[in-house]
């Protein structure tokens, strides 16, 4: 009787890796908000990626992991890099030109819906009643979190909605593709390649469209850029790809609903933004959704 029960037990290492990911990504939201006053959005991503790739490559080298891409895996590695890194970071950043942060967040973090839909035909993860309830609970909490003060999306904001929705859908597809057709590389080597390849188009965009003036950036901005490279673009991506190896794709994607909650709490602590009953209610709903997704 105990074997079937233990088989259903969530992978605690995978859950710990997922928690590290969402905390690091969540803390990056207030950091990005601060940085945007001095540093263009694509430049933020590129500087962070340079640091992140260096750290990931150093980890792989220190562990003795090969950095060479397995024969025949190049196209697959490029595809998942474009989906997991380029699409998410680039398109989400562009959406901020038309949308407020709250508006962009609600669209971007609709990703569990798309991941659950993609995981059904690609991975055979059935859309159970528990997972539907988890999605409804988590997205309701997210709606309470970012829509409490109202969101008006007029025709002038449609480009931003399109960018944010594309980022969410493509990242969700990347989650499922990575789970279904993983590249046979150690986690640190794979994360280094994905981050590097995924940020190469962002570097081109930054050079073409942004004015980069490092001498004008404050010390605080430099520290936050370093954090962005070490945490969200380095160790967090490593933890994310490792978590995907251990958790169902729909559960991992649902776990990302915790990211904006961490961001709101961090913004209250570091930026003085409000944290009241609405935020607490949203926190309870989202955590409940994540728990249901993991158990479902």
Q: What do you see in this structure?
A:
Helix 2 packs antiparallel against helix 10 and helix 4 packs across helix 9. The protein is built from 13 helices and no strands. It is globular and about 50 Å long. The N terminus is likely disordered. Helices cover 77% and strands 0% of the residues. With 296 residues, it is mainly alpha-helical.
Features:
296 residues, mainly alpha, 13 helices
In short:
The chain is mainly alpha-helical and 296 residues long. It has helices at residues 2-7, 12-35, 41-63, 74-95, 101-108, 111-123, 129-147, 158-180, 187-209, 219-246, 249-255, 258-271, 277-295.
The quaternary state of the protein chains shown equals single chain
Radius of gyration: 19 Å
Q: What is the percent of helical residues?
A: over 70%
Distance, first to last CA: 20 Å
**Shape label:** globular
Strand content: under 5%
Kindly state the number of beta strands.
0
Low-confidence stretches: 1-7
Arithmetic mean pLDDT: 82
Could you describe the largest sheet, including whether it forms a barrel?
none
Q: Give me the secondary-structure category.
A: mainly alpha
Summed up, the helix count is 13
Helices and strands, in order, run as: HHHHHHHHHHHHH
């Amino acid at each position: 009787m105990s074997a079937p029960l233990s088989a259903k037990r969530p992978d605690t290492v995978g859950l710990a890796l997922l928690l590290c990911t969402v905390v690091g990504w969540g803390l990056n939201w207030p950091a990005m908000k601060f940085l945007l006053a001095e540093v263009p959005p694509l430049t933020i991503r590129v500087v962070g990626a340079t640091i992140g790739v260096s750290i990931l490559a150093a980890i792989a080298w220190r562990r003795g992991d090969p950095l060479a891409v397995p024969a025949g895996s190049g196209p697959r590695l490029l595809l998942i890099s474009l989906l997991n890194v380029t699409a998410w970071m680039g398109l989400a950043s562009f959406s901020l030109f038309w949308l407020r942060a709250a508006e962009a967040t609600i669209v971007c973090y609709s990703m569990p819906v798309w991941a659950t839909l993609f995981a059904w035909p690609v991975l055979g993860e059935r859309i159970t009643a528990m997972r539907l309830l988890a999605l409804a609970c988590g997205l309701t909490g997210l709606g309470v979190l970012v829509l409490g003060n109202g969101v008006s999306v007029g025709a002038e904001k449609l480009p931003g909605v399109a960018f944010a929705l594309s980022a969410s859908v493509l990242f969700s597809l990347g989650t499922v593709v990575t789970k279904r057709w993983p590249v046979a590389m150690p986690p640190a080597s794979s994360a280094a390649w994905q981050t590097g390849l995924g940020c190469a188009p962002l570097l081109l965009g930054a050079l073409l469209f942004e004015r980069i003036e490092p001498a004008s950036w404050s010390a605080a901005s430099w520290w936050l850029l370093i954090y962005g490279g070490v945490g969200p673009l380095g160790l967090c991506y490593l933890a994310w790809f490792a978590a995907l190896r251990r958790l169902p794709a729909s559960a991992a994607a649902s776990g990302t609903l915790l990211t904006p909650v961490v961001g709101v709490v961090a913004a209250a602590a570091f930026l003085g933004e409000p944290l009241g009953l609405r935020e607490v209610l949203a926190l309870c709903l989202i955590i409940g959704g994540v728990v249901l997704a993991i158990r479902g």
